Amino acid sequence: MDFSEKARALVQEQIVEWDLAGRNYEGLRRVSVKTFDFGDYSIDIQYNPERISSSALQNKVQSLEEHNCFMCEKNLTAPQRKISFNENFNILVNPFPIFPEHLTIVGVQHQDQQILNSFESMLNLASQLSKFVIYYNGPECGASAPKHLHFQAGLKGFIPIENDFANEICCREVRTIDGVKVSHWPEYQRGIITLTGSSASDLKACFDKIYTQLQIFSNVNSEPMLNMIAVFDRKIWTVHIFPRSVYRPTQYFNAANDQFLISPASLDMGGLIVTPREEDFFKITEEDVFDIFEQVCFDTQSVLTVINKL
């Protein structure tokens, strides 16, 4: 069953029933967007003041446990409602939207945000929410609730990387592993590993190898820093993996006029940088974007080192 229409209907219903959602989805009409053209690709900058509330909430809930976790079903309060998905997840409307239809998909069980054992769930979500892009933020890379497994989803067509993927100048295939095409993005400012395939099990096996190599490269035993975006189209999955060097750029910690309140996560990695403050929207330049990505992302050589170890 394709859950897309059920999820889209839930968004429209919650906009009417839930004052918080209604106000913030109405606020999307006042969102401003500007585009930086880098020749073969572009990056959108979105000024979205309602996201400041989401950022504040994220900082507040870093250590929330089950008894007060806002993602646990028992803690949901009316008028917020859910759609059950395959008994393991609940589909919720995100009340701080970036997309016209923005979902948060949360695990039924209260368990840590971790992708290694949830990768196939992400593929399943992408195939059954076929009108949406599914994305994952690691526990140290923008996750709203690091203590509760969740994904997010937005309607297809809003993230620049969706179109850029078809541009061979941006995305180049490196090798094929057990039927899975492995590509990288040499001229895209961000080090990205992209997997393409029609078999969920083969994609899972390839991802497991990448995950292990990222652990080795980053010298960690826990989940390596990463963001991910998954899309399903014409029976093919495309999974973009964004290995991370650091969570936040130095500009985030600067004072006064030198500060940018930008914490890059999956959407930013995909070319949609969200700025909750108006001053950041107006003052950010192409040079700032280059510098931010250079700080938080792997470079091309690092990505190729990981791929060549597979």
Main beta sheet strand tally, sense and closure: 10 strands, antiparallel
Unreliable stretches (pLDDT < 50, length at least 5) are none
Query: Which CATH class?
Result: Alpha Beta
Widest sheet, order of strands: 3-4-5-7-6-11-12-10-9-8
CATH architecture: 2-Layer Sandwich
Query: What value does the Rg take, in angstroms?
Result: 18 Å
Main structural class: alpha+beta
The N- and C-terminal alpha carbons lie at a distance of 35 Å
Oligomer: single chain
- Quick one: overall form? globular
Number of DSSP helical runs: 10
Order of H and E elements: HHEEHEEEHEEHEEEHEEHEHHH
What is the fold-level CATH name, i.e. the topology?
A: HIT family, subunit A
| CATH homologous superfamily designation | ATP adenylyltransferase
| Global mean pLDDT | 93
Number of strands: 13
Helix share bin: 25-40%
How many domains make up the 3D coordinates? 1
Query: Into which percentage range does the β-strand content fall?
Result: 15-25%
